[in-house]
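Title: Comparing notes on inverse folding

I've been comparing how different people in this forum approach sequence design from structure. To keep things fair, I'm posting one structure and asking everyone to reply with a full sequence. Here's the target:
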């Protein structure tokens, strides 16, 4: 039974037309970005502008839109579990990933650790899983937004702080994040980030639906909560629907540019870079799978329902995605091993074309077992 259900899940993925379509589309857009950079068809440092558009416009729109759906009380337990899992996962990697590079100098530990910890989550893993399960697109957006709460908080606080510092130890970081007044102010600034603001506004609007008697908005023959602003404020749904999809193509295009600027031949010769890619592509997804199996068993024992296979496959795909452009940007901005960070980013993009589908297949097989719902 285990073999047959797992094999069927893998075959379903491999035979999915949309799965291959999104992989080809992503590869093609990356290639266009590569050509544009090689041929100097774009102005210098153009990607900095693109990154700002993604971070300040597209991703906040995507985060808010993902929560503008009808709440399902049966999803509450799993939703809380996903948010907790995300925070545990990104806390562990933010402060633990450097130990994979303990024999290297401090600056390399920091840069490579952050390259391992943070992925281009929304642009690859989420998009590929959505292509496989188009009919569950709204659920996928919701699950990914919840799991990535920890991602956004730590990438714009701890990761930024780690990459800024030339020397760093655990006590110093703990003081910077919790104890010192300066650290507290920095932490407050993190919550001014548009993506984080949109995420928490979205969570509030989503949970607000639990209040009895607020289904006051009637449209399309159905009553909606007053928190469903997309149903009665003209233009909200259209604006979010136009802006949200911009994130992926713009990010893929800029990744092609990063590849063109990287010294690929030099990256291929570096054992340290390949070790980092191995940790990023193999060890972190395994760690994610272990965490999800444990939490799913706990949920199943306490509530009778485990984590769904859809959210499990989604989060594994997120973790298996290439290194986040933001981390490479930090390395360049703070002059902290920028060449190595670029090499890791470039190779994880190249290997991601194989790595993400591989982990989707593996997690689909595991997700088809009785461990998940």
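Reply #1:
Here's my take.
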């Amino acid at each position: 039974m285990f073999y047959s259900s797992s094999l069927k899940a893998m075959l379903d993925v491999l035979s999915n037309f949309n799965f291959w379509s999104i992989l080809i589309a992503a590869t093609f857009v990356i290639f266009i970005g590569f050509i544009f950079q090689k041929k100097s068809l774009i102005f210098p440092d153009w990607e900095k502008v693109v990154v700002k558009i993604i971070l300040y416009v597209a991703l906040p729109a995507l985060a808010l839109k993902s929560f503008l759906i009808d709440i399902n009380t049966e999803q509450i337990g799993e939703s809380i579990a996903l948010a907790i899992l995300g925070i545990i996962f990104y806390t562990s990697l933010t402060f633990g990933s450097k130990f994979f590079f303990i024999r290297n100098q401090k600056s390399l530990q920091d840069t490579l650790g952050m390259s391992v910890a943070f992925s281009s989550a929304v642009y690859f893993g989420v998009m590929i899983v959505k292509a496989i399960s188009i009919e569950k697109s709204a659920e996928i957006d919701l699950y990914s937004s919840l799991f990535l709460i920890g991602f956004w908080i730590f990438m714009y606080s701890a990761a930024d702080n780690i990459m800024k510092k030339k020397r760093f130890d655990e006590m110093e970081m703990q003081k910077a994040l919790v104890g010192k007044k300066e650290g507290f102010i920095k932490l407050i600034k993190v919550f001014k980030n548009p993506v984080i603001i949109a995420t928490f506004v979205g969570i509030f609007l989503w949970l607000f639906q639990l209040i009895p008697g607020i289904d006051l908005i009637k449209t399309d023959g159905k009553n909606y909560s007053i928190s469903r602003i997309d149903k009665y404020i003209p233009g909200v749904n259209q604006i979010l629907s136009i802006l949200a999809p911009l994130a992926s193509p713009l990010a893929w295009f800029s990744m092609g540019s990063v590849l063109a600027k990287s010294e690929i031949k030099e990256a291929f010769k570096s054992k340290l870079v390949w070790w980092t890619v191995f940790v990023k592509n193999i060890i972190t997804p395994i760690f994610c799978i272990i965490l999800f199996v444990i939490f799913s068993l706990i949920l199943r024992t306490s509530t009778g329902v485990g984590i769904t296979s859809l959210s499990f496959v989604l989060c594994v795909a997120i973790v298996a995605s290439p290194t986040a452009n933001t981390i490479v940007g930090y390395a360049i901005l703070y002059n902290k091993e920028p060449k190595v960070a670029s090499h890791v980013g470039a190779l994880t993009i190249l290997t991601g074309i194989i790595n993400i589908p591989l982990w989707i297949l593996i997690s689909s097989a595991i997700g088809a077992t009785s461990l998940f719902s």
